[in-house]
Amino acid sequence: MVAVTPQDDSRLRYAWRVCSVTSLGLVLIGIAGSTLNVALPTVVRHFHAGALESGWILLSFLLVNTASLVFFGRVADLLGRREVYLAGFALFTLASLLAGLSPTVWFLVAMRVLQAVGAAMILANGTVIITDAFPPERLSQGMGVYIGTLSVAQLAGPTLGGLIAETAGWQWIFWVNVPAGLIALGWGTLILRRMPRRPREPVDALGNVLLFAALSALLLALSEAGSGGLSSPVVLTGAAVFALLLPLIVLAERRSANPVLDLRLFAGRLLTYANLASFCNALARSALILVMALYFQAARGLDAFEAGLSVLPVPLGIGLASPIVGMLGRKVSPYALSIGGAVLSATGLGTLMLTADPQTPYWVIGIGLFVAGCGSGTFLTGNTTQVMRALPQDSLGVVNGFRVMVMNIGIVISVGLSLSVLTSSVGPGLRAQVYAGTLSELSPVAVGQLMDGFQRAYAVLFTVAVAGALLAALARPQRAVASLDSTSR
């Protein structure tokens, strides 16, 4: 039995206080995003916004947030993670206040861009700050609690958004973030200690511009693919711009003395496969909630509130599994947890493949959703811990930014891909009824056609989840690989 010194005890107490700060930031951003998803129709009606403006209220945040994560990971490595993290809280809070005062829809879009920048500063550094604070043998516990807060946002956000929009007005969708943001900023200022900075080096301006432009083009094309089809001019243009910029990014980053995206960091087996596994898990996890919400409304005729309650087993599974797995992480390797979580996710989705029928008992569907949620919570905790443990301290910020960016891209693809597969079984005239959740009111024939689409969507998500499990298995720890190499010699 190893004796616990006063220094160890003091470090652990500080680590849990840090975890409370970073978890608060994750809940703040998660709730802010999920509440607007529910209240978007209310905002659209207020501004009499068209389809373009309505899409950009959500898309602007996702584009800017995803494309700037790596940049703020690098900035924090150079300028200080505490300073960038707290500045993110301040900017996010200010943008939320101004968003509620928006006189026009395009002013609101601009404030959403500022929110996205603040959120990127928070997301790119929260995991890094936790990794620095916790002793290596306790990191999985802290990561389990941190990731478990995702489920809090997913559980509270939709219900909170609907309630606020109906009772207080759409402005409070944004203003509710202000007191929470001020509390997070004050608590973080009080708790977080200054962290060592790397020597001042010039920022890779060209690399940042090219990376932002390429990701924006890619995400715009992916978001349009679900509604406009692969032949849409927006999709074709975005894909062409991305394909053109990709080799330019590689060339610019190889020549840069301080690249924003150091390609050498992703040459290792562990990081490559772990990030690809994370991408697959994000794609399957995010699309699952969307597909099931449409299933309960379009096929079973439930309203939005009832559908929201019906998909709760997913965030409940994530919320229960993450802290439990965090405690198991002291005895079980993150590598094993990643594989186990990915297999659980695939098992849950495989169960749902058998339920594409409006007459399926809910308890069967609920079990599939809960198992898939437990799998995601287990995988996220293990995968994140595995990646963060394997990195040198001076690269944590940029690599974590890349890791979150990869997950965000998976989320974007999941929306376009799942909607395209789901609605491929019905004609163009019925697709609006699917999105509106009113197809069940038309005819049993239309619902039967839609069931074929759900079957295909579940099959795609199951295939993606299986691919994630295989990739997680390939992400063998570097130490183990090194020991095998030395043995073979």
UniProtKB/TrEMBL annotation:
The keyword Electron transport appears for this protein: no
Top-level taxon of the source organism: Bacteria
Calcium is among the record's keywords: no
Record's bilayer topology term: Multi-pass membrane protein
Major facilitator superfamily (MFS) profile domain mapped to chain residues: 18-480
Pfam families in alphabetical order: MFS_1 (PF07690)
Membrane-traversing stretches: 14-34, 54-72, 84-107, 113-131, 143-164, 170-193, 205-222, 234-252, 273-296, 308-328, 335-356, 362-381, 402-422, 457-475
InterPro entries recorded: MFS, MFS_dom, MFS_trans_sf
Molecular-function GO term, any one: transmembrane transporter activity
Subcellular localization, as worded in the UniProt entry: Cell membrane
Keywords noted in UniProt: Membrane, Transmembrane, Transmembrane helix, Transport
Entry-linked CDD domains: MFS_MMR_MDR_like
UniProt xrefs under Gene3D superfamilies: MFS general substrate transporter like domains, Multidrug resistance protein D
GO cellular component: plasma membrane
Name of the protein described by the UniProt record: MFS transporter
